Amino acid sequence: MQNSAESVSLPSTAPRTDYGILGAISFSHLLNDMIQSLILAIYPLLKNDFQLSFGQVGLITLTYQITASLLQPLIGTVTDRKPMPYSLPVGMGFTLCGLLLLATAPNFQVLLLAAALVGTGSSVFHPESSRVARLASGGQHGLAQSLFQVGGNTGSSLGPLLAAWIIVPHGRGSVAWFSLAALLAMVVLMQVGRWYQLHHVSRSKMVRHVAGEALSRGKVYLCLLVLGLLIFSKYFYLASISSYFTFYLIHTFGVSVQAAQMHLFIFLFAVAAGSLIGGPVGDRVGRKWVIWISILGVAPFTLALPHANLFWTSVLSVLIGLILSSAFSAILVYAQELIPGRVGMISGLFFGFAFGMGGIGAAVLGRVADAHGIDYVYSLCAYLPLIGVLAVFLPDLEKRQRA
Fold this sequence. Notes:
The protein is mainly alpha-helical. It has a single domain, classed as Growth Hormone, Chain: A. The chain is 77% helix and 0% strand. The chain has 17 helices and no strands. It has helices at residues 19-41, 43-50, 54-81, 87-104, 108-135, 141-170, 179-203, 217-242, 245-253, 257-285, 287-296, 299-304, 310-325, 327-338, 343-372, 374-381, 397-402. The model is unreliable at 1-12 and 207-212 (pLDDT under 50).
């Protein structure tokens, strides 16, 4: 006999993995995050143009990240109840407006408004596109989220490279040329929205995991707390690299702005490569172990980074990017399986919390850099991955599903 809470009706034919849709949503994620990363990449330019302090630089990131983090869970909850297939190109429209405003901003206050518009676009894009990736996964949820994430991380890595090649030589006004990328993304997302409208009902009837439902409410809350602390450690540390790595390299090793941006590109490219690993590995060996290794396993490298020369700083940054970035896809799918049927809410909550931690981290670390120097930031943040030891409290959901 089967317990009614654990029985699941299996569809006669499970939908196959739709790699065309996964490729389209990953490509859109690439364009979206490439545009957004331009803000981070041109920080040295903005700092000089507007005579900003490190604290004000952090405030730009905080505005962008907080706007995204506050709206994402709300949008995810709403779309869980009423899917909105064409919200994806609308979200990209907000990003387009923010990009054009960034290119023409006359003062710091307008820069903050531009960052808020880009954050609003992100808040619409991420929960719904994550849902599309899960619907198109054909049951390979970790693989689908990794393909989705690798698009975004690749786009983030291209931002510094394009800034070094185009924006630094031609000035901040050249940012407006990237509006063409936003328009291209809107065209692609219109096609994704059409597929989403046709398939979201049938694909939502796929068999869903029940492991999370078998846990007590207190255990689920404990798991969410642990996952939140792991997100905090990951994104606080990533904020120290993405927002201040160029300043650290210029200050510590005397490299040029363009050379520093190339180093940032290498780090972000490693982040993109690492994000492709975590999901499929989690599908095979279990997401708990990917989470454990990717957070705690990076600690020796972060502890060594503040004491390394330029060559080893580059090597260590690549290792840190590869290992640390493999966690998010595993964390997100783990949380989706922890609370089945709430993909939008969970995606919005975790994307939003990640963005919020990145923004708060940038603002706090900017103040720390103003008060104690940029070197102190990296010495302090080196200990954050040790929080990964808390993964011991996460149950093995895949083992419970097999049972």
